[in-house]
Amino acid sequence: MTGNGSAVGDISRKLAGSPSGAGAARPRIGVVGDLLLDRDVDGSVTRLAPDAPVPVVDVAEVRQSPGGAGLAALLCAQQADVVLVAPVADDAAGQELRRQLAGLTLVPLGHAGPTRRKTRVRSSGQGLVRVDDGGPGTPVGIDAAAVQRVRDAVAGCDALLVADYGGGMTRDPLLRELLAEVAERVPLVWDPHPRGGDPVPGAALVTPNAAEAGLAARGLPRPPAESDTEVPAVAGVLRRAWDAQAVSVTAGDRGAFVASRQDDTERTDGAPGVVRHLPAQAAHGPDPCGAGDRFAATVVDRLARGDGATTAVRDGVLAASAWVAAGGADGFRRGRAASEQPAERSGPESLAELGARLRASGGVLVATSGCFDLLHAGHVTMLDAARRLGEHLVVLVNSDRSVRRLKGPERPVVPLADRLRVLEGLGSVDAAVVLDADEPSDAVAALRPDIWAKGGDYTASDLPEATVVRSYGGRVVTLPYLPGRSTTGLFSQVRASEPVPASIPSTMRRSS
């Protein structure tokens, strides 16, 4: 297949591969928390009700999907095998949750009251009202046998996420004992809620937002002084109060502030330790809901793969921003609904269709471009970093004709078919697409990736396609550049090392 609108080879997502492309198996992640059923009611308003001055919504579509710990589990499942432990009500909404979570290992617990539902009513994309019902959702029937069942289910997990939505899971004393045990064995990420219990000691990372952190700090037995109420200081105060290995306070467009035990213990004078600031790029979208779940799912995945807290939070901030830019929870639900529809295909898949299909399967779509001639460690490092920004990575690969125009008549060294085959073999790459143009603006406009990633040897001002990416709300990210690695340098080394017979005239001597 050729041209900007054609994918080459099998571009389905490599479920067995790791985001880093290192070939490691998918981690196993446990998610413990409270389930919700999120519902979106879309319609139009053309009149007021005759009995009151309120709009009448003519419903056009209703979408529903798991929320709370259910959404967090689905996001984790894009990269990992997931065990979800949560109370599940025995009602129609509970059955719908079970159906939509069928791809996960679900460990249901007793549930007090009907399923908690959050229904958002919109007209022409504008929110009118949110209606909450059901609950309280408190776990019931938690005894030694139930706790042992949970313990057995999460025993083989590489990390665990506590997705607290105030239903009562984190206040149950037996479950808290179990969570404290898990925190001693594997990384435990605690996403708190104002109505939930405090994190258990030893959590690898606690992830309140700024409002939750401020409320928690004010509720401490010894609240911080007025001078310590700014977000960075609060992160350190809560880290020590909760005895967590690290606390990350997310602050919207400001990014996140991370206080870690290591940075605290580096101080010998009793003063607060270093709090690291990880900035975010501004993201704008109609629905920021679920950004916290996207953040938490990303950080627990990174910790499960052996990354440190700061690296995990950095990637989580990027993922949350991309989530908002891609339409938030509503965009995710629309994508899930579209993916359940049978596909009708005729002819090769265009870039627009490829982008829509990957987004429909959920998660952040990342793309990059290049010649990728003589694939080397610098290429692999950049592609691994790009893949870690999202759930899908599309690589636009310059055709042989384009490479000759860009690099000269002796390039490419490796023909297009071989370059594509090597890229498709990397666990970090979901799709390789031929780019016949010398710069990718038109291809980017068709694909519409959430994140356009390029190596750190570029700046945004070097990239003509950056304007296109920003025009639809996407983001441009430059990635670490591994110095001393370049195809041109390798090519020159090969030429210099080749023995040239003296009988060949110098004008005919060239590298093959």
UniProtKB/TrEMBL annotation:
Organism whose genome encodes this protein: Promicromonospora umidemergens
PANTHER family from the UniProt entry: BIFUNCTIONAL PROTEIN HLDE, FAD SYNTHASE
Record-linked Gene3D superfamilies: 3.40.1190.20, HUPs (3.40.50.620)
Domain Carbohydrate kinase PfkB: 199-329
Listed name of the protein: PfkB family carbohydrate kinase
NCBIfam families from the UniProt entry: cyt_tran_rel
GO molecular function, one term: kinase activity
Record-annotated Cytidyltransferase-like domain positions: 368-462
Keyword Transferase attributed: yes
Segments of this protein annotated with the region Disordered: 1-24, 112-135
Lineage: Bacteria, Bacillati, Actinomycetota, Actinomycetes, Micrococcales
Signal peptide residue numbers: none
